[in-house]
Amino acid sequence: MNAMFRSFATFNYRTWFLGAVISNIGGWMQATAQDWVVLTELTNNDATAMGATMALQFGPPLVLVGLTGWVADRFDRRKILLTTQSTLMVLAVGVAVMLLTGIMTLPMMFGFAAAFGITNAFDAPARQAFVSDMVSMEDTSNAVALNSASFNMARLIGPAVGGVLIVVMGSGWVFIANAVTFLAMLIALLLIRKNELMPRVKSGKHGGGLAGGFRYVIHRPDLMVVFVMVFLVGAFGMNFPIFASTMALEFHQGADGYGLLSSVLAIGSLAGALLAARRDRARVRVIIASAAGFGAASVISALMPSYWSYAVVLIFVGFSTVTMLTTANGYVQTTTDAGVRGRVMALYMAVLMGSTPIGAPIAGWVADMFGPRMAITVGGVAGLLASAIGVGWMLWSGRLHRAERTRFMLTLDETRPLSVVQAMDPSLFNDRTAATTPIRLPHRKSD
């Protein structure tokens, strides 16, 4: 099988991928509808209220990180996901009923956003760590990249379809459509062959709940730098619903124009995810370079004079964003001890998703006070700063040095993924296999 799609050789991953694509399409449709409802139906183009909604939805992963990481490491991740996906489906139906009956208010939407956030706080680390339960360690980076491709394939379709459905049928029916797509993920989770999942590793020396995850990350400077870079880009650069919706209004576009911008962003995002899937492993240097690319593309997009020129630059924004986040996700997963992976991924998701409550209200306020172009520029500067921090760490750590085989090229020492040796079946063990051949050392002359 093509190296780009090698994870599809595993039945469980193929099943998961198909369910995820369908569910993610519905998720992007709902996200488009929710943003548009808050911006245009519940308020009079209030970007600050939209930022507050995002803060309530993405804040719980940061607040609950100690509990959610422990749950992802302690309990059956498949059962966790069955519970969270069912809960998200019920919440989507609840919002739909409120909208279709005309009783939805802004405070009620805030409440639903918080409920979505709490549920996703448990769903995200379990879902991220579950990828490594379905494939071998050698294929984990590829599986993470294909997961990102699935997410962005859905982004390519979902926002555009959601924008059209809002115009044609109304926002409430978009939430109904999303609730139906959750069934695909639930069916996929039920079809997964439990006996083919990778063995779970106990916490061991990294026990102690969240403290174990913190201790592990603190003693890994490379992970600390990755987390800081992801935080900066996540907090100030990845407020795409605010940026795209306010820019759509500036260019005198409606909900369909906003949805199209999200789909255009996904073109570059999908390309970035597929390119990441081709790489044999995730590297820090790619994270640093893509953060710089994100910053530069964002600043350029803020200068575009028309709707279509802005849309074209969004392709490069999406490409660099997903390249950075997919590589960072794969790097964290493949270089982290299995016994603490759930907690470390919970910390990672808390940094990524939890940065939104800090950045989204600021981005919304800047967009209201100074216009969306200034808000986008602030996000671009954050990307450039993140890249500068990464370059500074490379120079400080001593990992960057001249390549041995070339005179002018530089190379960076990377943390390599661990290769897992499978345990021997106890039924095959006997005295003969236990016997060892003595190692003959070369004779050394005495000084």
From TrEMBL:
<dbReference type="Pfam" id="PF05977">
    <property type="entry name" value="MFS_3"/>
</dbReference>
<keyword id="KW-0813">Transport</keyword>
<keyword id="KW-1003">Cell membrane</keyword>
<feature type="transmembrane region" description="Helical">
    <location>
        <begin position="49"/>
        <end position="67"/>
    </location>
</feature>
<feature type="transmembrane region" description="Helical">
    <location>
        <begin position="88"/>
        <end position="118"/>
    </location>
</feature>
<feature type="transmembrane region" description="Helical">
    <location>
        <begin position="310"/>
        <end position="332"/>
    </location>
</feature>
<dbReference type="InterPro" id="IPR036259">
    <property type="entry name" value="MFS_trans_sf"/>
</dbReference>
<keyword id="KW-1133">Transmembrane helix</keyword>
<keyword id="KW-0812">Transmembrane</keyword>
<feature type="transmembrane region" description="Helical">
    <location>
        <begin position="257"/>
        <end position="277"/>
    </location>
</feature>
<feature type="transmembrane region" description="Helical">
    <location>
        <begin position="223"/>
        <end position="245"/>
    </location>
</feature>
<feature type="transmembrane region" description="Helical">
    <location>
        <begin position="160"/>
        <end position="192"/>
    </location>
</feature>
<feature type="transmembrane region" description="Helical">
    <location>
        <begin position="284"/>
        <end position="304"/>
    </location>
</feature>
<dbReference type="InterPro" id="IPR010290">
    <property type="entry name" value="TM_effector"/>
</dbReference>
<dbReference type="InterPro" id="IPR020846">
    <property type="entry name" value="MFS_dom"/>
</dbReference>
<feature type="domain" description="Major facilitator superfamily (MFS) profile">
    <location>
        <begin position="1"/>
        <end position="405"/>
    </location>
</feature>
<feature type="transmembrane region" description="Helical">
    <location>
        <begin position="373"/>
        <end position="396"/>
    </location>
</feature>
<protein>
    <submittedName>
        <fullName>MFS transporter</fullName>
    </submittedName>
</protein>
<feature type="transmembrane region" description="Helical">
    <location>
        <begin position="344"/>
        <end position="367"/>
    </location>
</feature>
<keyword id="KW-0472">Membrane</keyword>
